[in-house]
Amino acid sequence: MSSVSDWEATSNPVKENRAGNIGKAVDRYEGPLKVTGTAPYAYEVEPPSPPAYGVLLSASIAHGRISNVDTAAAEASPGVHLVWTYKNVPAQGPRPARYDFFTPSPRPALESERVHFFGQQVAIVVADTLENAQAAAALVKLSFETEPQSVIFHDHFDEAVQPPGESDTEIGDFEAAFAAAPVKIDDNWRTPLQNHCQMEPCATTAWWEGEQLTVHTSVQMVRFAQSSLAETLMIPHKSVRLLTRYVGGGFGGKGSFYEDLVLASLAARELGRPVKVAFSRQQMMHGTVHRPATEVRVRLGATAEGKLTAMSLMTTTHCDRRGNFTEHASNFARSLYAAPNRLTGHQLVRLDLPVASAMRAPGEASGTLSLEVAMDELAEKLGMDPVELRILNEPPTDPETGKPFSIRQLVRCMREGAQLFGWDRRNPKPGQVRQGRWLIGFGMAAAIRGNFLLPAKCSFTVDAEGVITVKQGMTDIGTGTYTVLAQIAAETLGVPLGDVRVEIGDSELPPAPGSGGQFGAATAGSAALDAGMNLRKAIAEIAVADLASPLFGGPSEDITFQDGVIAISNRSERLSDLIRRNRPEGLTAEGEIRPAADAGKWSSHTYGAHYVEVAVDTVTGEVRTRRMLGVFAAGRILNWKTARSQLTGGMIWGVGSALTEGNSVDPHYGSLINQDLAGYLVPVQADIGEIEAIMLDEVDDKANPMGIKGVGELGISGAGAAVANAIYNACGARVRDYPITPDKLLAALEAL
Ligand code: MOS
After folding, report:
1. For ligand 1, is residue 518 a contact (CB within 6 Å)?
2. Which residue in 254, 250, 230 sits closest to 242, CA to CA?
3. Among residues 247, 277, 250, which one has the least CA distance to residue 263?
4. What is the pLDDT of residue 3?
5. Residue 520 beta carbon below 6 angstroms from any ligand 1 atom
6. 134 Rama class: left (phi>0) / alpha (psi -120 to 50) / beta
7. What single-letter DSSP state applies at residue 588?
8. What is the per-residue pLDDT for 6?
9. 731 contacts 433 by C-beta, under 8 angstroms
10. For residue 1, what pLDDT is reported?
11. What pLDDT score was predicted for residue 532?
12. Which helix (H) or strand (E) holds 644?
């Protein structure tokens, strides 16, 4: 296995060529298809023959069992092909004791009479039309018997346990150092249960040809879903071809898959015709996964000069009864600031709620909403500027492991952000800047998110037209995967972008882990780079061995690739001419990436700094974000436009988590009260004033051969805290129970 030093020593055109298309604001590869509405999302894919339509029915209790099922009227309803409940659904692979995010395993649908949460899918009706299926679904009679339920997080704190296999992390003696600190912060922050709210719901179109299943669905992880589906259906993996060509948002919520995939596949087999099944928006809220609520206690102890001596983040969060998912809201603090005495950990409460799982920047998104506000509070107590406080506590090496940072430009992000934003115009005293009925405030926060690389493969083929086709079982969940893969192909083979085709989202292509944990671009891109380099080598060998080539006999390592032409000094020919003569059927090279054997020697993260200006209406409690600036350091940026879009999207989501987003649990039904996008408020265009994301020129040589990292989750980390800090600076009120809605803000203002 290679090591990071091998990567550092080896040059490649992506790393070397700063004038190429890598990093440029290249338009989205699939943009025209999306804006013209012709990119076929899973539900819109045309199957080979007319499909039937499935409608799912969901449980109306949080905990208990299905006590009676009467499907007679539904079965007799016009156009109905089948009605399934746990009583008659076909046999499926058994559910494992615990699900693991990356290990394929069966996910049986309509598994038993047991109801584990409100909104669990309990029946499906399949009919010739969607309307007939919906009409028949209304005729299915299900009775439920309820059992005692626990659904309100804060009522069950006494049942909190340490997540299995975890223990608190302590360095030094936190309690003693905290007790002795002359300046202290000790506060609790609450974040609510949140939903991903992807634009595209979970949806599947499935059909069989003999023993072979084809499914188009909407997921983040191709191979995981394909293998797990095969195991659910108890058929060989190779009998399932799973495609997910366009995905209308994932954010962690489509890291796994749901009953639409399993039941569309089963029903299509049963009926011998294609079947389409989609979740409704309400089913997305309950029947997929969510980010669980947290309560985070932050304790900071500092010297009078502002040096942190003690720091602790203790998180309590919740998951479903059968899960282990933990919102690790304390983890990021282990790498952020220096402090000799440290304590971090998590506690988990199991509830009869829908399944908790990963949502964009799991951990950081919730945790920064506390620590990055606590740092603001500490700065005020010390009479220090919040930027200077952070810089004073910048660690020289990873504060817990002592490992060197692969690269860490957090201070530069903060300084450049302060300069560009005009931070020096901030009045440190709250409530001083008034414009009419608005109080104006500035806030800032740091951003951090881990960097990951997973194993992946890729293939590149050059054809007789000189066109490069990239093939990879990767996904593009709106992030820009298609585009950056095209850029890497164009760059490595020296062809125009228009001469690259990208095929992804298909389980029959070389496997890649998919999109998640902001590892997608680095992982998929690194495998693509390897494929590109291998194809270059293969082309070069053919060229110097071809008597008919002007490059014949030349040193193959001197060949340049540019504008579709291969050359050795002044001898050249078109790439397409060489391929047409030698490999008219095309020439393919495979590529692969694995994490370097010594990658664990470095503490590797992405960083940023957020600056926000808000206006607070002290009469209505309304908050407006007027200006947002994020400055980020995330390695070499592959595409300025798609990366910026990822970062600003994350920042806007941070505004949502600060001001509007959150789901309340109905204590009687155990349901989520806000079940649609009218009640669950995500920020819209009008909620966002000026917004800009700037990316520092950085290369992280320890990350991968191109020195790139990821930005998909970095933007949300800290963004909401900067909003909360700006609100405080505007009006002097701190609300530690997110979201900071007008009612809470008015109450806090009244209490001043
Ligand atoms: Mo993610 S929230 O790791 O898809």
Report:
1. no
2. 230
3. 277
4. 84
5. no
6. alpha
7. E
8. 84
9. no
10. 55
11. 98
12. helix 640-659
Residue 498 neighbours by CB under 8 Å, 6+ apart: none
Distance (Å, rounded) from C-alpha 643 to C-alpha 213?
A: 36
State if residue 707 touches ligand 1 by the CB under 6 angstroms criterion. no
Biggest CA pair distance of the chain: 87
Which residue do the tokens 């590869």 mark? 29
Q: Which residue stretches of 272-421 are H helix?
A: 281-287, 333-336, 364-382, 386-392, 410-421
- The CA 220 to ligand 1 mean position distance, Å, reads 9
220 lines ligand 1 (CB under 6 A): yes
Q: How far is the CA of 439 from the centre of ligand 1 (A)?
A: 37
| 713 classed as catalytic | yes
* pLDDT beneath 50, residues of the chain: none
Q: Is the CB of 516 under 6 A from ligand 1?
A: yes
- Look at the pTM and tell me if it is higher than 0.85: yes
Residue 402 backbone zone (phi > 0: left; psi -120 to 50: alpha; other: beta): left
Which of 357, 713, 714, 716 has most ligand 1 atoms within 8 Å of CB, for mutation?
713
Best probe residue, ligand 1, of 196, 360, 452 (max atoms within 8 Å of C-beta): 360
Output the six-digit token pair for 25: 């604001």
| Residue of 443, 445, 439, 444 whose CA lies nearest to 730 | 439
In whole angstroms, give the CA distance from residue 655 to residue 393.
26
Predicted confidence at residue 98, as pLDDT, reads 84
Q: Which residue in the list 30, 200, 327, 713 is annotated as catalytic?
A: 713
Q: Encoding tokens for residue 591? A: 């590529």
Report pLDDT digits (tens) over 43-70. 999 999 999 999 999 999 999 999 999 9
Backbone angles phi, psi at 187, to 5 degrees: -140, 160
Q: Which of 155, 189, 69 is nearest to 725 (CA)?
A: 189
